[in-house]
Amino acid sequence: MTDVSYSPQSQEAEPSLRDYYELMKPRVMQLVVFTAVVGLLAAPVSVHPVIGFASILFIAIGAGASGSLNMWWDADIDQVMKRTAKRPIPAGKVQPGEALNLGVALSGLAVMMLALSANLLAAGLLAFTIFFYVVVYSMWLKRATPQNIVIGGAAGAFPPVIGWVVATGSMAVEPWLMFALIFMWTPPHFWALALFMRSDYDDAGVPMLTVTHGRPSTRRHILAYTVLLAVLAVGTGFTSIGGPIYLLAAVILNALFLKGAYDIWQRDEIIADQDDYAVEKKFFKLSLLYLFLHFGAILAEALLRPWGLGGW
Q: Sign of the CA dihedral 62, 178, 263, 144?
C-alpha cells in the first residue's frame, strides 16, 4: 500500500466542462467506444441504428464514470507521478468530492439506461465492468500486487463483450476472443510505459512490476506475454470473426510486435537510459496502433461479410 497522501490544492475558479471531460479519461473512453462498436457490429444479429447508438453512448458514459471514480480514488498518487500530475484533481481544477459525485451519478445513469435501451445482461456486464475497474483494480489490485495490470486489464477488455451482448442478448465464444486480445495486450502495453516512465511508480509507491521485480524481469515478461498474444491474435484469424483481411493484418502486426518485444528483451539498462528509452517508447506507440488495427480488421470483416467479401 502506498504511503503518499493527497494534499488538496486551492480551487481558484469553477471547473469548466473541459475539466469534467478530462476527468472521464477521454482517451480511454475512445478505446472503449471503438471496441464496443466492433463487438456490436461483429455480432451475427443486426441492431436498429437508434438502439445501437444509444447503447454505445451509455457504454461510453459508463467508461467515463469509471475514469472519474478512478481519478477520485487515485488523487494521492496522481499528484506524485509526472505523467498524471496535470490531471484535474491534482491540478486543483476539480475537487475529489465532485469527481466522486460525478462518477456515482454517471454510473447509475449508464447502467439504468443501457438496461432500457438494450437488455439486462448488457447492463449487468457494464455494472460489473465499472465495479471491477474501480473496486477490484483501482482500490485493491493497483496498490497491492505487481499483477495489478494483468488482472485489472480485464476491465478494459469487457467493452466488445458488452457490445456483442447488446446485439444478441446472449454470450458466445467470439466476443471472448476479442476480450482475450485486449486482456493479453494490456500487460506488455503498460509494462513498456512503466519502463520509460522510470521513477514515477517508485515515487508513488505503486507495486508495478518494474518496482517489485526490476526492469530486466519486466523485459522478460513483455516478451513472454507478446509471444502468447501473437499466438492468440493470429489464431483468431481462423475463427468466425476472422478472415483474410484480419489474418493478413494480424500476421504483419504481430511480426512487428514480436520484433519490438525481442528488442526490449535484449536491452541493457545503461544503453536504454542513454538513448532515453527510445526502443521502449517505440514499442508503446506501436502497441496503440496494434490494438486499433486488429479491431479495425475485425470490423472490416464484419462489414464486408454481408457482401460475401469478409470472413471465410
A: positive
